[in-house]
Every structure is written in C-alpha cells, then in structure tokens.
Amino acid sequence: MRILSIETIPVAVPLTKPFKTALRTVTTAYAIYVKVTCEDGRTGWGEAPPTHVITGDSLGSITYAIEEVIAPLLKGQDLRNREEMFCLLKRSIVRNTSAKAAVDMAIHDLLGQFSGMPLYQLLGGYRSEIETDFTVSVNDAAEMADDAERYFADGFNVLKVKVGIGEITDDIERIRAIRERIGSGPKIRLDANQGWKPQEAVFAIGQMEDAGLDIELIEQPVPTDDIDGLQYVTNHTITPIMADESVFSAKDALRVLERRAADLINIKLMKSGGIHEALKINALAETYGVECMVGSMIETKLGITAAAHFAASQPNITRFDFDAPLMLAEDIVVGGIVYAGKVIRMPEGPGLGLDQAGMGLIGKGAGQ
Ligand code: MG
Asked: How many angstroms does the Cα of residue 278 sit away from the middle of ligand 1?
C-alpha cells in the first residue's frame, strides 16, 4: 500500500454563464488534477482549482507545491500509516491549502478503495443523498430575478445569492427584486464575500429583516481578518451569520467559535487543505453547537465528489453548496457523484466512486 508516484494534470472547462461575486468573475474552471498511484496499480484522484483571491493559490503554485515539494515527501509512504502521511502533507509547505487538499482527496480515495467502502461510509456514512443550493451571480436586479426564477423553476428551492458589490442599497434592491419574483417559498441565503463594513452589514441586514425578505443566513459579510467585525455583525442581527473566508483551519474555527463570532461555519476543502483538517473543523463546531455547511470553489465534479463524501458523512453538516459542476459546459469526470436536479446521490463504489479506466484517459487528450 505504498505510494509509487504523484502526477499533476492541468484541465480547463468553460462555464455556461460567467460566475460573478464581490471578489471575481470566472468564465472557465481551471484546475490541477492530481493522480496518486500505488504499488499495486490502484490510483487515487484529487483536484485543486486556482482561487488566488481566496486562498492565494495559482495554477503555477499548485503544480510547484505538488510536484516539487509534496510528491518527493510522500513517495514510498505507506497508506496504512495515514496519520504519518497527513502530518507530512500538512508540514510540507506553509499555506498552499489547495495543493494539499488535492493530495489529501487522492489519499482518501485510495483509503476507501483499500477498505472496499465508499468514502462517505468510511468517514461516517450519515447520508447517502444530499441536496445542493444554486448560486445566483451578482448582476443588475432584473437579471438576478430572471436567473433566480429560472433556477427555482428547475427545482432548486434554496438559492444562494451573491451580494456585496456597489452600494448597499443596490444589494437590498437586488434581494427585493428576487423575493418579489420567486415568492415566499424558496429559501434565500446571501453571500457578501467580505464586501461590507460591519456597520453597513448591520444596516443592510436590518433593512432586509424589516422588509420581511426572509433571509436564511448571510455568509462572510466582512473582510477575512476582521473577527471583531464578524462578531459585531453576529451580535447585532437576528439573521444567522456564517463564517467562510475567516475560517481556513481548525485553529481559525476555534478563534471564531470561542467568541461566537459567527452562528455557522462554511467548510471548504480548498481552505482546510483537505478532509483530514475539515473533519477537525466540523468536530470543533459540533462541540460548540454550531452547524456547518460544506461549499466549494468553482471546481469540476472531481473536487465536489470528494467534498460531498465528507459532507454526507457527518450529521453536523446540514447545508450543502455544491452547484459548481452544474455551471460547467462539460463533465470530464467519469463516475463520482450523480446529480438529479438539486439531489446529489453518493456513489456506492469504493473510495470516491470514480471510474478508474475512464479517469485514466484524462490527460491523454480529454479535458485539455
Ligand atoms: Mg462564501
């Protein structure tokens, strides 16, 4: 069960519609796939997208970290001593959480394969099916209402709306337009992606509460490092506040949880550096009575399959933001999770449940 080789494969898949947030606009999903091969020929797969505005990671830095730093350290390591491998991975290089996440996913894929169990069952097995929300990108109010109406008609009854661009009154107008168009049935959660100042956030959220816009939760209203500001917003609003960019690691989570600076935490493998650390964040949150969502960057179905296995396995993870593969013009991943509208079914094959032969063709002309 020793690791023989670790390879990187760049992929690029266009989006059907530009994805716009307070931080960036994305038209193509770029990623580095990682393929870990064991001595017996089994392969494990992972993915790292370059989300430099959030993680600082680029295609170049991910490739360098995996090929030049992580691969030489992990080659020859035995999967039966996995904690040793995760220690080596964590200490291999500071930050670079996306590269670490891709390798961590591939190791977990292999652990599942060796155990003969789907990864979500190996990790806890809590759910075999989960439901995703769908994201409405930031645009003018009319276009956002059109998009929200279409996604709701497609069966998505939880819409995640991106705000935090321009004037705060524009954000309120956007939400009002969406709520008027789709009615009171669907849930609306907001993501400001650090776009507000604390006082602005309290004002905006208060206005939305007074207008009866019925917002389920608001993600990351203030900048990453402003934990005082995050706590201020949480203490001065009724609507639940979720920490996203403020929590990368278990240590970050503890800082937020000890002060109750947020009501909820959004875990992403690209921030935590993989499932090993994500499990710790979730365990801490559960200890403090805080539920988690698992979300993603703009990733293909490979990264989302790994995240979904982790998310489905734990009872404290109650919200799922896994719409990224549905925004892509093409699905290059063979096997993995299966979408039926908003429902995601976990694969029953071992590990991530990928098709080994089909995945083996990636990098040989497919997905480039
Ligand atoms: Mg977010």
From this structure: 16
Q: 113: CA distance to ligand 1 center in Å?
A: 32
What pTM did the predictor assign?
0.97
Q: Assess whether 268 carries a catalytic annotation.
A: yes
User: pLDDT at position 368, please?
Assistant: 42
Q: What domain count does the chain have?
A: 2
Is 126 in the same domain as 79?
no
CATH assignment at residue 111:
3.30.390.10
Tens digits of residue pLDDT in 148-165: 999 999 999 999 999 988
Note if 162 is an active site residue: yes
DSSP E strand stretches across the chain = 3-20, 25-38, 43-48, 129-131, 134-136, 158-162, 187-191, 215-219, 241-243, 264-267, 292-294, 317-320, 338-340, 343-345
Ligand 1 centroid distance, CA of 193 (Å): 6
- For ligand 1, an ion, list residues with CB under 5 A: 191, 219, 244
How much is the average pLDDT of 108-128?
Answer: 98
Cα 5 to averaged position of ligand 1 atoms, centre (Å): 34
Residue 287 pLDDT > 90, yes or no?
yes
If pLDDT is split at 50, 70 and 90, which confidence band does 303 have? Answer: very high
